[in-house]
Amino acid sequence: MCAPMSKRRLDFDIVVAGAGPAGIAAACIAAENGRRTAVLDATPWVGGQIWRGQETKRSSRAAGRWLERLTASGARMIRCAADIAAPRAGVLLAETGEGPLELSWQKLILAVGARELFLPFPGWTLPNVTGPGGMQVLVKAGLPVAGKRVVVAGSGPLLIAASAELRKAGARVVVVAEQAGLSDLVRFAAALPRSAPKKIFQALQYQLRLLGVPYRTGCWVTAAQGGQKVEQVTIQSQKKTWTIPCDYLACAYGLVPNLELPRLLGCRLENGVVLVNLWQETSVGDVYCAGEPTGIGGEDRALIEGRIAGHAASGRTDKADCLFKARKRARKFSLAMDRAFALRDELKHLAQPDTIVCRCEDVTRRQLEPYDGWRSAKLHTRCGMGPCQGRVCGGAARVLFGWKHESVRPPLFPVTVGTLADADLLPENKSS
Amino acid sequence: MADLVTITVDSVSVSVPAGTVLAAAIVQAGVTRFRRSTKGEPRGPLCGMGICFECRVTVNGRPHCRSCQMLCEDGMDVRTDE
């Protein structure tokens, strides 16, 4: 038996989980309101995925402003700390390079962001097949793509943002294949000026940079082929099928919220997002939520909700209500986006019987088909039991089979034996 | 210019600007197969955000490190395909 490792413990009034735009805004406000505040993130950097690298390269004005404000606010930034469990009320347990760290809180703000939705198709497990967002962050982080041929595919505004970033880095974006139909996108664009004046500017900017990149709507990737890595991609529209040679394929179908920590804490969900009240407070008292987990809406919405949560958690609701109008606008934009980029039925049938659905355990669609739900499939095939714990295949199984991936248990991420030996890690009542 | 750090990837030495994420440096060393799946298939980074665990490698003898969530440090010894 291992002896439990000695735990470090820090006490705060307000703990913020996640240092992206929502978490940074919440932490700034809470600290400025005089609360002892900590913000933790699993990465070595501050900014989450969207503001990754902004600490050194200030290409976004908003990011620069907020990062400076965070430093000045006095909030304590805890890097390389992954939230893995909530062993008792008012305590968050994080795994760090130096072992487990306990953070005690009076109010907890969840700003845990989102991930890309991947749908399986033949060849999607080949090296050099990534998500558009994933490719974008890797390029920002130093992945060399100059002269490389990239197919960008899937759905959502991220395809355009990623393509612009890739072009800037010297990649040849050979095609952008958006599954949504042109008529839906036109309706979406027409609704933009009223719901989000700032975003139309961004969209135009991207369009300009994209000149020369074929942006095709109503088409989707059906297969990727290659030996040791992707070499070509097959794309289909309602009218035809064609093949394009490439060095990379960046393909994902929009964003889905990270719900593991909200679920672990028992926060009520509705339509796949965390339910919050006027003050961004969840169904669990003293636990707040801001940004993508309450509904995918990007940086603007995250900043607004983060500020509201920061004020409310520090007892300054009087300072928050001036932000409600902006939040309403941002949420309207989210709904318009959901409608415009709704996934077409054809995408459910891309995975063939021998296509891998669970990449961690190499479980194919054929192996999963006999089961009627996530739980039984998991028990019989090990689907979702690898290191990613269903973070990739759970979303795919929901789209493919309509399965719900609800249960969650600590640790939320694979941890060292030392942390596992910590007797506090498992709650008294194990949930199934 | 930014300072350079030098790491070793499967005995190949690469120098990258400080602040480069490890997964990007591994690609610069000519690697596309970061690991093999349980059935032996080649795999590389998928999500780039620490979710999928496909980019995991051995760093300074420590297995299962997500290379997309780590910054390069001078003298790092990285093994892929393990």
Can you characterise this structure?
The complex is a heterodimer of chains A (432) and B (82). Chain A has 432 residues and is of the alpha/beta class. Chain A has three domains: 8-113 and 256-339, FAD/NAD(P)-binding domain (3-Layer(bba) Sandwich), CATH 3.50.50.60; 118-253, 3-Layer(bba) Sandwich (FAD/NAD(P)-binding domain); 345-401, no CATH class. Chain A is 31% helix and 22% strand. Chain A has 13 helices and 23 strands. In chain A, strands 4-3-2-8-21 form a five-stranded parallel beta sheet, covered by helices on one side. In chain A, strand 15 (232-237) and strand 16 (241-245) form a beta hairpin. The radius of gyration of chain A is 22 Å and the shape is globular. Chain A starts with 7 loop residues before the first strand and ends in a 12-residue tail after the last helix. Residues 427-432 of chain A have low confidence and may be disordered. Chain B is mainly β. Chain B has a single domain (4-79), classed as 2Fe-2S iron-sulphur cluster binding domain, sarcosine oxidase, alpha subunit, N-terminal domain (Ubiquitin-like (UB roll)). Chain B is 9% helix and 34% strand. Chain B has a five-stranded mixed beta sheet, covered by helices on one side. In chain B, strands 3-4 form a two-stranded antiparallel sheet. The interface between A and B is large, with 40 and 36 residues.
Explain the layout of strands and helices.
The complex is a heterodimer of chains A (432) and B (82).
Chain A: E1 8-11, E2 14-17, H1 21-32, E3 37-40, H2 61-73, E4 76-78, E5 82-85, E6 91-96, E7 99-104, E8 107-110, E9 114-116, E10 129-130, H3 132-140, E11 149-155, H4 158-168, E12 172-178, H5 182-195, H6 197-210, E13 215-217, E14 219-225, E15 232-237, E16 241-245, E17 248-253, E18 255-257, H7 260-264, E19 269-270, E20 273-274, E21 287-289, H8 298-313, H9 324-340, E22 356-358, E23 363-364, H10 365-368, H11 374-381, H12 393-401, H13 417-420
Parallel strand pairs in A: 1-7, 2-3, 2-8, 3-4, 8-21, 10-17, 11-12, 11-17, 12-13
Antiparallel strand pairs in A: 5-6, 6-7, 9-18, 14-15, 15-16, 19-20, 22-23
Helix pairs in contact in A: 1-2, 1-8, 3-4, 4-6, 5-6, 5-9, 8-9
Chain B: E1 4-9, E2 12-17, H1 22-28, E3 35-36, E4 42-43, E5 56-59, E6 62-66, E7 77-79
Parallel strand pairs in B: 1-7
Antiparallel strand pairs in B: 1-2, 3-4, 5-6, 5-7
